[in-house]
Amino acid sequence: MKEKFKAFFASIGYLFLTILIQLVVSIVGGIAIGFYYAINGVIQMENGLTLEYEIDSMLNSILSLTNIFLLISSVITILALILIYKIKRRNYKEELQISKTKSVNIFYAIILGLCCWLFNSGVLSLVEEAGLFSSQFEYMNDILAPISQGSILISMLTVGIVAPIAEEFLFRGVIYNTLKRKISIKWTIIIQAILFGAFHGNLVQGIYATLLGIVFGYVTYKTKSLWPAIIMHMVNNLTANIASFILGDYLGGTLLYIIFTVIGTIGMVLLIFLIRKSNTNNEEKIMNFEGFNNLN
User: Fold this and answer.
1) Measuring CA to CA, which residue among 182, 150, 223, 199 is closest to residue 5?
2) Is 283 exposed, middle or buried (0-12, 13-18, 19+ CB in 10 A)?
3) Is the dihedral of CA 251, 253, 257, 260 positive or negative?
4) I want to staple 25 with a disulfide (CB 3.0 to 4.6 A). Which of 73, 83, 180, 253 is the partner?
5) Domain residues of the chain, as ranges?
6) Strand, coil or helix: what is 120?
């Protein structure tokens, strides 16, 4: 039991490290922008601009660079985790399952990522339309608003490609590997998914990110490769990102949300079944969930 707790708290440590990196990058970036406006503030005010205008302009600049801060912190996170494995003299590619997988797994991952987006957008839109958790939806929208600002290409690069790689490297890679060394695969999938949900910092995203974490974790377990989860995450985020830029806050009416939910649900169930069927040989040694009862 002691080893299980050590694995759990080690996972928490990796999560806090990632949060710390994001916080430091944001603070350093904010300070740099603040210095820039402080240096140029006198000149601007000589031209008739007020201090209030300068502060508002500075804050808008910081918010507009949210994607850049996220991009930088994501890259640093990946490099920091690799460095930790190097220092420990462990093969991160082997342990984190950064290995080739079947072409069919990549194909399934692409479709499954799209189905995840359909399910999430459909369910969340129905819940929001019903007026439930309105304050939580408002809070989530405030958090996500800066990400939709600026260039769509930068947003797609950050939110759709680099951030998913960093998050999968952390959750389905480092945390997943840390947990599965000491506890059952079933609890590994559940715990890493809960931590993935908590990482998003708000109730709405936390709930659906936890569900996604379970799907991503299960696919990682079945395929014995990190790539399908990365592909799914990318497709989900890119689809959400593109839809947000093209359609804004409006996707359609209640009927469309229901269609999204139904198609997404059926697609997720079908694709998970197909992934399980095409990777049956990967689970033989783990399917009995040895050690699961030892958690109780």
Assistant:
1) 182
2) middle
3) negative
4) 73
5) 2-89+102-286
6) helix
